[in-house]
Amino acid sequence: MRNFLPRLAKAAAWSVGTVTVLAVAAIGYIWLFVANFDGYCDELGRVTTDRELILAGITNELGDIQKPDGGTYESAEEFLKEHSNCCKVDRHSNLLPEKNASRFFGMYSVVARIAYISDSRKPGKYVDVILYISPCGQVLDRS
Known about the structure:
This protein is α+β, with helices and mostly antiparallel strands. Helix content is 38%, strand content 20%. The strands form 2 sheets. It has a 4-stranded antiparallel β-sheet, with helices on one face. A two-stranded antiparallel sheet has the order 1-2. Strand 4 and strand 5 (126-133) form a beta hairpin. The longest helix is centred in the N-terminal third of the chain and has 30 residues, at 4-33. The radius of gyration is 25 Å and the shape is elongated.
């Protein structure tokens, strides 16, 4: 019995040490190769600009956006020419639930806000759309 306890203690210490080393290695791997805190897009091989994310959001909404005269916009660029201060990208929004935890596992998204006046002659003329966009410009959700 006397020889058994020291061997058990040595084995337990070795197990705790091994688990600790493996846990640190796993966290290091995730931090280096999976976590996405800056909005890196693998498809493009770089971080997308705010303008690119805004254009992606507007393009997603073009079917719902009407000109004051009732027509539609041909492109996101045309919309931006008329509404140059319409949009904002927030990479660190409080609207993102548990943003740091999800970004640690590579799930990065930003909040893009599109706000404009659709028609000054009609009630409900102010339009305010919030979009959740992936770092590659894909709209994930809308509110």
